[in-house]
Amino acid sequence: MAELDNYDVLESVKIDLDINDDLQDDLILLLIRKVTDHFKLAYSVSAVEATFSFVVEDCVIKRFNRRGSEGAKAESIEGHSVTYDDTASEFEPYDDLIRSKLSLLETKERKGGIYIL
Question: Which residues contact 115 (CB under 8 A, 6 or more apart)?
Answer without folding.
Answer: none
